[in-house]
Write a structure and sequence with these properties.
single chain, 238 residues
Length: 238
Amino acid sequence: MTYKETIERLYALQNPEKVTFKEKKFGIVSNNSLGIYHSELKKIAKDIGKDNALALQLFDSGIYEARILCSKIFKPKDVTEALMEKWVKTFENWEVCDSFSMGLFAKSDFALPKILEWTKRKPEFEKRAGFTIIASYCMADKLSENDLFESLFPIIKQEANDERIYVKKAVNWALRNIGKRNRDLNKKAILVAQELLETESPSAKWIAKNALSELERDNIRMSDYPRVKYRGMVEGFE
């Protein structure tokens, strides 16, 4: 699909009422938006497949939905640090932030360095991106041992006092996903949440209570990474 064809397809789906609905219902405030749901963009991305050149053109169009589409068709392993820095500075809401962070950044070679950098950033959605990468990296990385994820607990504890809604929700998300990686990390994430519960920060207390409500459930959906079968598959290619 060419750039012109893709833009025409996006404009064919234009619906100003959806722009208003998304803002009122989901808090998605966006500039130059056509009003296209995420599910519709996923269908377009599937039809296109991976296409880095087209992705870059779409991002530079400045159209909100074209930028989200960029995050879905760019190959994660081709992402550069320069592109990540260019893109993260444009994030204006949680939807575009999470689309890039989950589908692209968490699968890139720069996931861990950007976690360390961005979780300390001041702008709300740059900081959210750092924690969203953590939440996604827990599932994207099937091989790393527990110590890597335990090393992220101090970051979570340090930034849990950020009262901004989209930051604290991402911090909570990161803590919960580490705690769902395996049984041992679940126990340690619960201890971190219990520590946060004892602080004076309203944000930290909210994060802790919300995390514990899931992490302590008997029927919690738990992964079992690192899985031996994945390690064997990787070694087989070496």
